[in-house]
Amino acid sequence: MALIGDLLRKIRSAFKKAGVDQEEAEYLLAHILGISRAEVHLRAREHLPAELLPTLEMALKRRLTREPLAYIFGEVEFYGRPFRVGPGVLIPRPETEILVETVIGLCPEREPFLLDLGTGSGVIGITLALERQALVVAIDKSLVALSYAQANLLRYRLKNRVFLVASDWCQALRPQRVFQVVVSNPPYVGPEEWPHLAPEIKDFEPQEALVAREEGLSAIKKVIACARKHLAPGGFLVCEIGARQADKVLALAQQAGLLEGRIIPDLAGNPRILVARQRREDSH
């Protein structure tokens, strides 16, 4: 039987050779043991239960192929809560939590009516339903992604607050349906960037959830058009963007007739969130 501390060192060494972040060794052991990362070190001189060794070996083998931990575990933490994810759906990133925080800041009142475009696993809409009791229409064209979103909304008992729709952007919405906020984390990676991304991304995550034509702007254009069409007067668009797209998306929002365009940076200081507002006198 192996000591947990010895296993930690061996996994860190294997990760280093494979080009994987060594810090993930703690996450891997913590998940297998069902404990926190801090407890991994506190229990370094304890033996790993023999029945857990096959699970650990399989998880380690998969991670060394560069498969993301979130797919191996079948879940990821977002805004302090676990969400189901897996092959075929985008893994939520920490910077997307800023998207959620921005919407919360714009909606001090309870029960806002929101449109979540390209919902993926549903983390944005579900988190806003939990944090602000929002009523959410969550749209995605991927049935695989919607299956994860369905599992997540059932997990949090939100089937009466989050409504999933299979649609290519806002095509399935009635023209008269309007929302206080349109929120989206659309594909914004340019096709030319895709081959240069980390293996965890380009070899495992769904390309259609990450890559957009026109230097990564085509999906953002559709989101802006949907916002212009379906925002209530004075409503807000909150959209995640690429770090080098700020000037272009501000111009696109202005050209579409949205007002008060501004960019919010992520924790690294990179431009990350577009915020713009619908005209107060109309919604067309």
UniProtKB/TrEMBL annotation:
It comes from the Bacteria. GO terms for biological process: methylation. This is Release factor glutamine methyltransferase. Its EC number is 2.1.1.297. Methylates the class 1 translation termination release factors RF1/PrfA and RF2/PrfB on the glutamine residue of the universally conserved GGQ motif. GO terms for molecular function: nucleic acid binding; peptide chain release factor N(5)-glutamine methyltransferase activity. Pfam families: MTS, PrmC_N. It comes from Thermosulfuriphilus ammonigenes.
